[in-house]
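Hey,
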Amino acid sequence: MEKRKLGTSAVEITPIIIGTWQAGKKMWVGIEDADSIKAIRAAFEAGITTVDTAEVYGEGHSERIVAEALADVRDQVQYATKVFANHLKYDQVIQACDRSLKNLKTDYIDLYQIHWPAGAFNSEIVPIAETMKALNELKQQGKIRAIGVSNFSGAQLAEASQYGRIDSLQPPYSLFWRAVEKDALPYCIENQISILAYSPLAQGLLTGKFPRGQKFAPEDNRSSNKLFQGENFEHAQQALDKLRPIAERHNCTLAQLALAWLIAQPQANAIAGARYPEQAQDNAKAADVKLSPDEIAEIDSIGRIVTDHLDNNPVMWNW
């Protein structure tokens, strides 16, 4: 899989990235470590060399699973992990990074990201200058190679950029969830900041596998996802019906079509999670789907069947 430059850094990433929130088990149901390890390894063998995790995914469990899957090929992969909103004071960032290095069994992290802005989830409000000071120091020490932010607005991204080089933004972004296009994307294009889109399949909605009337267990985080509720869910089904003929034309799945559309957007790369090896292999094949400009525009307009009815709240869940 052809790699892309991460921002202006020396790190190169694959346009399809394997996401490992589910490997942490917390807020997911029916996850087995052995399956997670096989899925991450299958992604690597299919050409996906970039893996995204976070300290908060199962309190380090996801990071440890990543290490178990990839430690023997560490020199061929790129690790992206994140420090949570409750660890953004100077000393806390340093300690969190050291924990992640230990969990990942590595002496450097390719991309270290602020998971949520200070204040999120009732966390303490820490000045971004203090957090960035720690991140810049970690970078100078060689413990991290690039700095990124996640779930930041355009204004928060611009403020953080005053204190050091930010090479990536990780927002929720898919054909059915496009708030970032109105907010931070223009800044990212102007400043060569890579977009690492999470939930690029809208938590599986864009696979087409969830029929009308689908219900989720209360402990499944999708039960709180706005896209799976009421009129939004019905609009999504209408859009999926229109996307199916385009997928058939390319002899690909709906998921591969949605990922191909996303990585064709400016600066955009897609973090796609996988529970099982087959899903990881299927996600990798999306990089081979080549869409014409007319098809990209057609898919764009179909997506608006869903997005035109959403409010401007960038958070996808009713938490």
